[in-house]
Amino acid sequence: MLGEGRPDLDLASEITVTKQPNPSWSYGDGVKDYDASANTHREIDPYAADRPMVNNYRLLISGIAPRPIGFISTVSGDGKRKNLSPFSYFQVVDHDPPIFIVGFSSRPGQEKDTFRNLKESGECVINTVSENMIEAVNACSLDGPYGISGWDISGLHEAPSATVKPSRVEESVLSIEGKVVDIKEFQAHFEGLSVAGLVLIQATRFWARDGAVNEDASHIDLEKLRPVAQLGGMSYGRITSTFELPRSRWAVEQPSSGLLKSLQSLDPDSRK
Ligand SMILES: Cc1cc2nc3c(=O)[nH]c(=O)nc-3n(C[C@H](O)[C@H](O)[C@H](O)COP(=O)(O)O)c2cc1C
Question: What is the pTM of this model?
Answer without folding.
Answer: 0.95
